[in-house]
Amino acid sequence: MKNTHQLPKDGIQGLKDNFSSDALSGFLVFLLALPLSLGIAKASDFPPIMGLMTAMIGGIVVSFFSGSQLTIKGPAAGLIVIVAGSVAEFGRGDSTLGWHLALGALMVAGVVQILFGLMKMGSLVDFFPLSAVHGMLAAIGIIIMSKQIHILFGISPVNELGKPLVEPLDLLAKIPETLMHIKPDVAVIGLLSLLIVFLWPRIKHPVLRKIPAPVVILTITIPLAQYLKIDGKQLIHFDQDFIHTIAWNERFDGFAQTGIFVKYVLMFALVGSLESLLTVKATDMLDPFKRKSNANKDLMAVGFGNTISALVGGLPMISEVARSSANVANGAKTRWSNFYHGVFILIFLFLDLQFSDLIPFAALAAMLIGVGYKLASPKEFGRMAKIGPEQLVVFCVTIVFTLSTDLLIGMGAGIVAKLITQHILGVPLKSTFKAHLKLTSNKITVFGAAVFSNWLGIKKHIEKLDKTQKMTLDLSNCNLVDHTVMDNLLHAQADFENQGGELILLGLKELHPTSKSNHELSTRKKDKSERLDHIGNPK
Predict the structure, then answer these.
(1) Which one of 141, 188, 223, 395 has the fewest CB atoms closer than 10 angstroms to its CB?
(2) Could you tell me which residues come within 8 angstroms of residue 354 by beta carbon, excluding any fewer than 6 positions away?
């Protein structure tokens, strides 16, 4: 059924009409973003205040150019791994130098994202198999937890040469040693914070539920840290002269390390864009007004924001999913909520001197462990298994390769694993990257297979259909319809429904799910005896 709510107006009229709801949501999102932005910056080996600078730019500047109404722009935990890795590789032990050099790669990556948008590559998100994307995010979650658990107990693990550990597998292996040498005062703060992270969302009281867990943590741990008189090295210090610490003449010295520079430009641009686009897609589904975002415009806005952020020494930003979800839940109506969230961050920046040496790192570590756990929750493994055993294989392959190498190789390994599994399940080679279609004015017939690697060709023609009418997508001549396509088809049906039309899917009932649970997103396939060639003839 088409959404009948009156759409909120954009621009100045939207500001006037929705001031109270957007300002309130912006303030509540600010309360959530404040500690997370500090923690993300610290975990990324950037000065903590730069997390706030990034969030402020994402709100005050990027909101005017954004292609989506309700997403919140700011630093994201999902990019910690890349940012910290760039600082370590560029700086080779000197974190300040590494930060300066990483900014050059980030500026170029921002320009690349703008080009992505101009080239209308917003559909980039639809090429990657969902099981590999979720595997990448789970690996990021594990990597975040592997580092933050040591900080939770006040320990900075080092190798035999006394240098800080950065590899996730090494950090995981060091956990038993850390547990034997915990700093009790820091551990009290860390464990109490962790308890709040996991228990606060279970509170049912309607008023208390409105208060973000990070705010509760800071309210309790700041005075507790003062009472316990914990070491000043375990507290966040805001460098009030941070602008002068940015070495402008070093910004592009990273070009001299060509391989590393190109690697991180690609990682910032690809992973940041992918996460942003996934958030936009998810937020559109949550929007009570069912507005459809302009993914390409939003990608350009994020790229512009990243370029500006890097100019002032800030982190890479994305459309961040947790803050965007909170924004919708808090009743935001327009892009002005993101703007207000940035304004409140700016006000805090003027007052940050009062908070220097008050916020414990252990409290921020607990918040990030909570974020990491959500990304790599055991439920994610169970969900993949329910969708299908082949999805669990791709998911796990991506995690293993990401943990043992890096994100780009991990994602590449996941894609290769996905291609192999779908071929085993019956996808004709000629249908792997090209969709074979028959088109009429109100019907698309797909032959051979509908899979992640040929979906863009199918999607292009679905987008051309009149979404106010009843249209048909015939999949009865396919050997396989994969998990990623099943998910995209649900989104496509929702788009038709929101505009008053209907997308009818034919042939799915004749395909057998690969999972015993018959999950709605399971890959559907024909048995060996029923398989067709790439143009629909029996083999």
Answers:
(1) 223
(2) none
C-alpha 338: how far from its chain's center? 17
Q: Are 220 and 360 in contact (CB under 8 A)?
A: no
Report how far residue 516's alpha carbon sits from residue 385's, in angstroms, rounded to the nearest whole number.
9
Alpha-carbon distances, residue 197 vs 192, 368, 374 (angstroms): 9, 9, 11
Which is nearest to 345 in space by CA: 49, 9, 83? Answer: 49
Contact between 394 and 525 (Cβ < 8 Å): no
Exposure on the CB side of residue 143, measured as CA atoms within 13 A:
30
Q: The tokens 């597998």 sit on which residue?
A: 169
DSSP 443-492: EEEEEEEE-GGGHHHHHHHHHHS-TTSEEEEEEEEEEEE-HHHHHHHHHH
Neighbour tally for 91: CB within 10 Å: 18
**CA–CA separation, 265 and 105 (whole Å):** 5
Place of tokens 């941070």: 242
Question: Vertex 154, ends 367 and 40: CA angle to 5°?
Answer: 35
Render pLDDT for 22-69 as a digit per residue (tens, 0 to 9).
999 999 999 999 999 999 999 999 989 899 999 999 999 999 999 999
**How far is residue 90's CA from residue 97's CA, in Å, rounded to a whole number?**
7
Spatial contact of 519 and 390, defined as CB atoms under 8 Å apart: no
User: Which pTM does this prediction carry?
Assistant: 0.89
Q: How far apart are CA 279 and CA 272, in angstroms?
A: 11
Specify the range with the lowest mean pLDDT, choosing from 91-100, 157-166, 217-226.
157-166
Four-point Cα dihedral 70, 281, 305, 259, nearest 10: 160
Query: Which of 160, 159, 158, 150 minimizes the C-alpha distance to 180?
Result: 150
Quote the tokens at residue 19: 């001031």
Res. 387: pLDDT tops 60: yes
Q: How far apart are CA 246 and CA 96, in angstroms?
A: 9
Length of the chain: 539
Closest CA to 406 of 170, 149, 143, 145: 143
The CATH class of 429-525 is: alpha beta
Do 103 and 83 meet the contact criterion of CB atoms below 8 Å apart? no
pLDDT in tens, 218-238: 999 999 999 999 998 999 887
Domain boundaries, the chain: 11-362, 377-424, 429-525
Distance CA 77, CA 174 (A): 22
CA angle centred on 341, ends 336 and 346, rounded to 5°: 120
| Tokens 């996941």, residue located | 414
Q: What sign does the CA torsion over 433, 439, 442, 448 have?
A: negative
- Cβ-in-10-Å burial (0-12, 13-18, 19+) of 73 comes to buried
Residue 461 amino acid letter = H
